[in-house]
Amino acid sequence: MKASAANSAEQIAKRNRMFEEAYNSGDARRLVESYFAPETLAPFAVPPGTPPVRGRANLVGMFSAMFSDTPKIQLETVEVTASDDVAFELGRAYLSNADGSKVTGRYVVCWVATDDGWRAKTDFFAGDGWDD
Description:
The protein is an alpha+beta fold.
């Protein structure tokens, strides 16, 4: 059964916890497999200062490379807007860098409804802070 707007925030929160767990354990393959849309839906991410990273294999490489500089992350959803097939999430990312410094970033995820619930199709993120 495909995801629906009625339970989108709850399902997206669960995916985010999977993302955090995989990221914080340094498991890029599990992160991509549990978070991103299937390869047939051409998932991609847009990290700061670089062109989009397309496809699951490339996403695994991108996240693997990030772990040495920024080994820990915590996500905070600010808002989810959803229809039956597409949802958009706006949030903050609290990053702990390897040197002990902390950064608050921001992200926007375009989620798509799949047979396995909501999956990230496009993940845009930046580490340039977000103060209230």
